[in-house]
Automatic annotation (TrEMBL):
Residues 2-141 form the Formamidopyrimidine-DNA glycosylase catalytic domain. DNA binds at residues 115, 138, 195. Transmembrane segments: none annotated. Involved in base excision repair of DNA damaged by oxidation or by mutagenic agents. Acts as DNA glycosylase that recognizes and removes damaged bases. Has a preference for oxidized purines, such as 7,8-dihydro-8-oxoguanine (8-oxoG). Has AP (apurinic/apyrimidinic) lyase activity and introduces nicks in the DNA strand. Cleaves the DNA backbone by beta-delta elimination to generate a single-strand break at the site of the removed base with both 3'- and 5'-phosphates. Keywords: DNA damage, DNA repair, DNA-binding, Glycosidase, Hydrolase, Lyase, Metal-binding, Multifunctional enzyme, Zinc, Zinc-finger. This is Formamidopyrimidine-DNA glycosylase. It comes from Arthrobacter ginsengisoli. GO terms for molecular function: class I DNA-(apurinic or apyrimidinic site) endonuclease activity; oxidized purine nucleobase lesion DNA N-glycosylase activity. PANTHER family: FORMAMIDOPYRIMIDINE-DNA GLYCOSYLASE. It catalyses: 2'-deoxyribonucleotide-(2'-deoxyribose 5'-phosphate)-2'-deoxyribonucleotide-DNA = a 3'-end 2'-deoxyribonucleotide-(2,3-dehydro-2,3-deoxyribose 5'-phosphate)-DNA + a 5'-end 5'-phospho-2'-deoxyribonucleoside-DNA + H(+); Hydrolysis of DNA containing ring-opened 7-methylguanine residues, releasing 2,6-diamino-4-hydroxy-5-(N-methyl)formamidopyrimidine. PROSITE patterns: FPG_CAT, ZF_FPG_2. Belongs to the FPG family. Residues 281-320 form the FPG-type domain.
Length: 327
DNA sequence: CGGTCCACCTGTCGGC
DNA sequence: TGCCGACAGGTGGACC
């Protein structure tokens, strides 16, 4: 379910349950979910046991838990965007949810989920569930240990409560997301103009701007009235700002909607609830009336195209692809 | 080097 | 009923 808002909902939910607790036992139920840990499941488990969780940090759709011995203890870290810190090496438990991953806080008495892949037992804490479970149907996501390294752009940001001057090695290539206070539109636009590709492809490129997936890309394009195949090197500054603002708006709304489902014991990553069904204007609406055109007394139906081997939804009237090749 | 394609997985749904 | 293909919110590495 996870694009930026869903991952951020998970991060926010997780932090109050796991920060400061120690991982006492690790059970890798399906080794495929830790395949990105090159040294194998035993090494993964052995190195986690006894580690204390210091925080939950996000960059784009990547989520990680800095562990004991990380200089992250300096929680009064300056949230500046400058990179001038020289922190010591440290490790983190990295999580990516892929297409279907969930991180759930559960009591030990709760029966194993059908697709339970990894179980982390945590030190006892008053009123808190004993287990952090990684559940994943399609196994595109996973857990692994990674080094925390100094970063060129001032740390994870991404709405983390304590931005660290370190970033997980495996997320170092990920750009900041549009909701990140340190996100630079100027840099985004400069890099966008040098690309020779289609706009949606660029929006989905996590190295250019992070957090946007197939749903929010289509929604942002619809709201900005731009076509998914629009060549990036023809985009005017105002158009780029429009689509970025749209992405920011739709993801902010989704975040607000998702936050309410997260006040219980578990991280409910059921992104299909509430928001999506009601608020989407393009994604998944093939054959239905474009709401904007309908409001203008026009009739047009949302169409679906194959783009990048996945579906793209758009309105042929208000997001036109010009025939003469001029944008 | 940047852009594009495809493998990686399980499950569900609609058509025949 | 069952088989089969299409499709599903992502990513990295192989390939040009």
């Amino acid at each position: 379910m996870p694009e930026l808002p869903e991952v951020e909902v998970v991060r926010r939910g997780l932090v109050s349950w796991v920060r400061g607790r120690t991982i006492t036992a690790v059970e890798v139920v399906d080794p495929r979910s830790v395949r990105r840990h090159a040294l194998g499941p035993e090494d993964f488990a052995g190195n986690l046991e006894g580690a204390r969780v210091l925080d939950v940090v996000r960059r784009g759709k990547f989520l990680w838990l800095p562990l004991t011995d990380s200089p992250a203890d300096a929680s009064a870290a300056d949230p500046s965007c400058d990179a001038d810190a020289t922190p010591a090496p440290a490790v983190a438990l990295m999580a990516h949810l892929g297409m279907s991953g969930q991180l759930l806080m559960q009591d030990s008495s709760v029966p194993d989920e059908k697709h339970l892949k990894v179980r982390l037992r945590l030190s006892t804490a008053d009123g808190m569930p004993a287990e952090l479970r990684f559940v994943d149907q399609r196994i595109f996501g996973g857990l692994f240990l990674t080094a925390l390294i100094p970063t060129a752009d001032g740390g994870p940001g991404g709405l983390a409560e304590t931005p660290l001057p370190l970033i997980a090695e495996e997320a170092a290539h990920i750009a900041r997301d549009p909701l990140d206070p340190c996100f630079s539109f100027d840099e985004f636009y400069r890099r966008l103009r040098t690309r020779r590709t289609g706009l949606k492809r660029a929006l989905l490129d996590q190295g250019l701007v992070s957090g946007i997936g197939n749903i929010y890309a289509d929604e942002a394009l619809w709201q900005a009235r731009l076509h998914f195949a629009r060549p990036t090197d023809t985009l005017r500054r105002a158009e780029a700002a429009r689509v970025l603002d749209a992405a920011r708006e739709v993801m902010t709304d989704a975040l607000a909607a998702g936050g309410t489902s997260f006040d219980s014991l578990y991280v409910n990553v059921n992104g299909a609830s509430g928001y999506f069904d009601r608020s989407l204007n393009a994604y998944g609406r093939e054959g239905q009336e474009c709401r904007r055109c309908a409001a203008a007394s026009l009739v047009s139906l949302i169409k679906r195209d194959q783009f990048m081997n996945r579906s793209s939804y758009s309105c042929p009237v208000c997001q036109p692809r010009p025939r003469n090749g001029r944008w």
